[in-house]
Amino acid sequence: MWSRREFLKDLVGVTSDVFFVGCALGNTPARAQQPAAGKRRRVTVGGHRILTVDIHSHCYIAIDDLLAEIPGSNSSIVSRGSSQTPILNPTNLESRLQQMDARGIDVQAICITPSYNYGADQDLARRIVGRQNEQIAKMCEAHPDRFVGLGAVALQHPDLAAEQMDHAVKNLGMRGVEIDSSVNGDPLSASKFDPFWAKAEELGILIFIHPASVVGAPPRFPGNGFLDNVIGHPLETTLALSHLIFEGTLDRYPGVKICGAHGAGFLASYLGRSNHCAEVSEACKPIQKKKPSDYFKQQLYCDSIVFTAEGLRHLVAEVGASHILLGTDFPYDIGFPHMGDSREVDSVLGVRGLSNADQSAILGNNAAKLLRIGSRQEFCGSR
Fold it and tell me: What angle do CA 175, 205, 171 make, to 5 degrees?
């Protein structure tokens, strides 16, 4: 096991073949050094340099020519967003790296913008996902110290999705995959998706659940407030994770690890109600083997996008700092109205009540373990 001293030596330039497992536990205040123009912001906690990993970071892969083959498809929203946000283009890495450097993000886990195209037939789905994953892999190959990939899969075809996931991990170096909160109205707990969950458990990778839309949104969410996103997306994540708990999917595949976007929706903030139902109500049909909150001790994780220090403290109190990963929803402030947290690392640094160990875990340690970010070459680039 790598000691803290060895990690710090390696961070400043001593060659090492060992792996990152932890960071400083001192009591001095956390801070992030503000860089000079064009320099990389170095984040420290307890006076020690730490690795920062953004689990929630998008790119846009141009697939409009393929989407046109889907009957009744409309790719205009994603296309319009792409044209307005060139930093999402996987060929525009220099601008992206400059943004990361200025904001203190050492590593981004790259996933597609949440448009999953679950209406595509098997042949078209194979081509769409193939292009998406190949371009994400090229980004990671170009800068292996700054990017790791979360691949796409065609989950509407579960056997194909398992095949695509296997290829993405074993041949393209992906560290996980991103999926929607449901598939054409079917919950992720449906038995048809068992081949996908079995393969995810076998590969030992992270599954990132990020809603693309809200089932039943048109009649319920019109009007002001961007409610399909502000309320709808966290609700979708809550439903997805709750189905996986209460239908026993997580018990059938105990090695599966899942990160829910946007603080895991509302589930993590209201676990007491789910626990109560599991304990006393016949309506919950207790198929699951543990209390819902217990799944956050082993299998469930969430990103840190909850927007307030009090929200983050509450999230830590409910699920533990070891199950929260830094998320930004990059690029949160460019193009169409993203709902990311513009404070990024500063949403965690120095939050009252969080220890240095908690902050280090959230900012990077947890993601590094889950995404198998280890060697110096992978995460300590000189840029």
Answer: 50
Q: How far is C-alpha 243 from the geometric centre of its chain's CA atoms?
A: 19
Q: Is the pLDDT assigned to residue 378 strictly greater than 50?
A: no
Question: Are 185 and 216 within 8 A, CB to CB?
Answer: no
Average pLDDT over residues 289-293: 91
Q: Is residue 23 within 8 Å of 5, Cβ to Cβ?
A: no
**Which structure tokens are listed for 170?**
């074993």
Phi, psi of 367 (to 5 degrees): -65, -35
pLDDT for the residue numbered 333: 59
Residues 6+ apart with CB under 8 A from 17: 375
Which tokens is 3 given?
Answer: 């000691």
Q: Are 107 and 328 in contact (CB under 8 A)?
A: no
Name 196's bridge partners: none
Residue among 130, 126, 90 nearest 110 (CA): 90
Specify the pairing of strand 182-183 against strand 53-59: unpaired
Alpha-carbon distance of 345 to 304, in angstroms, equals 10
Reported pTM? 0.86
Confidence of residue 280 (pLDDT cuts 50, 70, 90): confident
What is the helix, strand, coil percentage profile of the chain, to 5? Answer: 45, 15, 40
Q: What domains are defined for the chain?
A: 4-379 (3.20.20.140)
Helix or strand holding residue 95 (H, E): helix 93-103
pLDDT digits (tens, 9 = 90+) for 11-64: 333 222 222 222 322 333 455 555 555 689 999 999 999 999 999 999 999 998
